[in-house]
Write a structure and sequence with these properties.
The chain is α+β, with helices and mostly antiparallel strands. It has one domain (about 10-235): T-fold. The chain contains six helices and eleven strands. The chain has helices at about 25-50, 50-55, 70-80, 90-100, 175-190, 195-200, and strands spanning about 10-15, 15-25, 105-110, 115-120, 125, 140, 145-155, 170-175, 210-220, 220-225, 230-235. The strands form two sheets. An eight-stranded antiparallel β-sheet has the order 1-2-3-4-7-8-9-10, covered by helices on one side. Strands 5-6-11 form a three-stranded antiparallel β-sheet, with no helix packed on it. Strand 9 (about 210-220) and strand 10 form a beta hairpin. Helix 3 (about 70-80) runs parallel beside helix 5, helix 4 (about 90-100) packs antiparallel against helix 5 (about 175-190) and helix 5 (about 175-190) runs antiparallel to helix 6. Residues about 1-5 have low confidence and may be disordered.
Length: about 240
């Protein structure tokens, strides 16, 4: 007899943070929400004392005794040569997922506006949203992971985040979710118009060995680099996308 899983999904918003949390147990979801509340509070307090942290687009010189959420954001963003807020969503998602895993979760997803941290003891399908691009109904089929991994997306045409590029979607895969978030921003920033420009954009992430792979969608162009999960055609329910 096969196991039956009762999967739970909850949409949760705290100020600018808009997440979808998926788990097998309501208890795990509550822990993820506690983590998000705590780390947002820590972040807000840090910014209150140093507003430059929120606005700089350059690498940030961080005090060694800074809180964990700040250290992770800075480490990831500095690796990509950009400002620390580029890693905020992935870091919040990753720390929320870790709170669930610490309690025993083996299947859990935190989607923070397209920056996704997950652990999955069964395969999972993640749909791709690329705004007005004609690339539709594309998804990744992720094999089982017994460790936390990340899929993060940046866009110059979708959502409120700052991007200086022209990517409809810049997607990065890494087990370091904070790094995946910052790298997706850097990749999106580097994407200009045209097939050759899409291919050249990957130069910004190639030196960073913790990145497994990446994809850029711009209009009808799809560029890929490194190791990408299996891609499939799937009917993506765009109402389920965590927009933020």
């Amino acid at each position: 007899m096969g196991m039956i899983f009762k999967r739970m999904r909850e949409h949760f918003q705290l100020k600018e943070t808009i997440v979808t949390i998926v788990a097998d147990n309501e208890f795990y979801i509550q822990k993820a929400k506690e983590s998000i509340r705590y780390n947002r509070s820590v972040l807000e307090n840090f910014i209150a004392h140093d507003p430059f942290f929120r606005t700089t687009l350059e690498p940030y010189d961080c005090p060694e005794n800074a809180p964990e959420v700040i250290l992770r954001m800075v480490h990831a963003a500095n690796a990509m040569g950009i400002g620390p807020m580029s890693a905020v969503a992935g870091t919040i998602a990753s720390m929320a997922l870790e709170a669930m895993v610490d309690l025993g979760a083996t299947y859990a997803i935190v989607d923070n506006g397209g920056d996704i941290a997950l652990i999955n003891d069964r395969p999972v399908i993640i749909g791709v949203y690329a705004g007005t691009s004609p690339v539709k109904d594309l998804a990744f089929r992720l094999p089982c992971h017994n460790h936390i991994t990340g899929i993060c997306t940046s866009s110059g045409t979708v959502g409120p985040s700052i991007s200086f590029g022209m990517a409809d979607a810049a997607i990065v895969f890494s087990d370091d979710v904070s790094l995946a978030d910052a790298a997706a921003t850097a990749l999106g920033n580097a994407t200009h118009i045209g097939k050759n420009a899409v291919e050249k954009a990957f130069d910004v992430i190639k030196p960073v060995h913790s990145i497994k792979g990446a994809m850029v969608i711009q209009g009808e162009y799809i560029g890929m680099w490194g190791h990408i999960p299996e891609m499939i055609r799937a009917v993506v329910n765009y109402d389920c996308i965590t927009k933020g």
